[in-house]
Design brief:
By secondary structure, the protein is mostly helical. It has a domain at about 25-60. The protein has two helices and no strands. It has helices at about 5-20, 25-60. The longest helix has about 35 residues, at about 25-60. The protein starts with a helix and ends in a 9-residue tail after the last helix.
């Protein structure tokens, strides 16, 4: 099956709608990408915070003394 001029035209029009210059859809897609990046950064920050808390908890845990009660 060969790709005809109508199929190429439809693909070009769809690409312009999604990624084209200054349209609402292109700005929406850009905002969507920014949201995904912010979400991933938030997940990484949460992981770092949990690791920091775990490290601090290990530092303040009392050590067992030699000899038993």
């Amino acid at each position: 099956m060969a790709v005809g001029p109508w199929q190429i035209l439809i693909i070009v029009v769809l690409a312009l709608l999604l990624f084209g210059g200054g349209g609402k859809i292109s700005s929406l897609m850009g905002d969507f990408a920014k949201g995904i990046k912010a979400f991933r950064k938030g997940l990484q920050d949460d992981d770092k915070a949990l690791e920091d808390r775990a490290d601090k908890a290990e530092d303040v845990t009392p050590k067992a003394k030699d000899g038993a009660h």
